[in-house]
Amino acid sequence: MVDVGPGAGALVIYTGDEMRGQEIEISPAGRDSERTHTDVLRRKTAAGHVCAAVFGSVPEGDYRLWHESRSGPQPVRITGNQVTELDWR
Questions:
Q1: Percentage of the chain with pLDDT > 90?
Q2: pTM (predicted TM-score)
């Protein structure tokens, strides 16, 4: 599901069910036009189901997240060998 290692991390954004099926976009900081996206999906975990968007392998660095539910782009730092988790619920 995720591919992390030296120079690459992953990002998981937990959301409420109302965002299920919507896209969240990510772009490198300072390069807003270079956006990619992933869908918010309902995912099964050991504790039950959650809605989350997963960016499975992202080069480490500073990024901006884009979604209409936010007042503007949200900064996030991706670190190699780690999974960054954000809670948007």
A1: 94
A2: 0.94
